[in-house]
Design brief:
alpha+beta; three-stranded antiparallel beta sheet; 43% helix; six-stranded antiparallel beta sheet; 296 residues
Length: 296
């Protein structure tokens, strides 16, 4: 079939259609943007329509520049899982839910790389509580004590008050983004914080997001950045970008879509109107001569 050139009915922006999508949310800026934006909109609806009180929890761990990403990431995910998710259904988890009036949760995985401390994987989790006046000190203590204990069992550690950080309400994300550099032109709320981590600007000139490393290689031929991106590719293979509690999307009466379904729906979105069609020979000429960006 022909390659399509589509124009947005309102903004006038152009883009290609009718192309195969790789569905690799961690590696492809195009697929990642489409999938992340879809989930951001849905998450924004949950935050605004559920009537529940959001508390964002950030999980980190101590690490050094010489540590391999797969090791640091593995420790982070294992400690988190044993702290927050593997206990579901247990009496201790039920007590935790009841004590803090926890209704649902969603968590997102993110990573940056820095010259000083190397890979910095971290998790953001939003707890949706029915109580608008939660005991945040008790909530942090309940999570942090278990989380640090799990890290130590794995040979890692976390600093009290740093390994687990709580920020309450939708405005909290602005403070977190400020640590990493300039705020985007649009409002960056909790929904964007959870779904667009690998697009955010990293803090200063000594820390980069994965796509920032890719830029260094593409435009400056930085071989170290290329090797780091390969390490990132291997470590994040088949990792979930966004994970939710059971029934999370029921809060807005919607079912979660697969990555493939999100990309297909975006391809057929009515706001993108057909502007022109290209046959296979024309498309080959454009690709061969590096003209894809010129047309867009």
């Amino acid at each position: 079939s022909n390659v399509k050139i589509r124009q947005h009915a309102e903004s006038g922006r152009m883009r290609y259609g009718g192309l195969w999508h790789c569905e690799r949310v961690w590696l492809c800026p195009i697929c990642s943007y489409i999938i992340s934006e879809h989930r951001r909109h849905k998450l924004g609806r949950v935050l605004s329509e559920s009537g529940l009180y959001p508390v964002m929890v950030t999980f980190t761990l101590q690490h050094n520049a010489w540590m391999a990403l797969k090791d640091v990431l593995g420790a982070l995910l294992t400690a988190f899982r044993k702290t927050m998710t593997s206990q579901r259904g247990s009496s201790s988890w039920k007590r935790f839910q009841a004590r803090h009036e926890l209704v649902a949760w969603v968590r997102a995985l993110e990573v940056t790389w820095g010259l000083l401390n190397g890979w910095h994987p971290h998790l953001h989790m939003i707890l949706l509580l029915s109580n608008p006046f939660p005991d945040l000190e008790r909530l942090q203590s309940d999570i942090e004590n278990r989380y640090i204990a799990q890290l130590q069992k794995l040979g890692f550690d976390g600093l009290p008050g740093v390994a687990v950080k709580l920020t309450a309400g939708n405005d909290a994300a602005a403070d977190y983004i400020a640590k990493y550099g300039k705020l985007p032109e649009y409002d960056w709320g909790l929904d964007r914080e959870l779904t667009r981590g690998h697009f955010k600007s990293a803090r200063g000139d000594d820390r980069w997001t994965p796509f920032g490393l890719l830029d260094l290689y593409a435009f400056e031929d930085d071989k170290r950045a290329y090797a780091l991106f390969q390490e990132y590719d291997n470590a994040f293979f088949r990792k979930n970008q966004l994970t939710t509690s059971r029934g999370f999307w029921d809060l807005i009466d919607e079912e979660e879509m697969t990555d493939a379904e999100i990309l297909q729906a975006d391809e057929l979105a009515p706001e993108w109107v057909l502007f022109a069609s290209l046959d296979l020979d024309q498309w080959r000429y454009i690709v061969k001569n590096g003209m894809r960006g010129i047309l867009e």
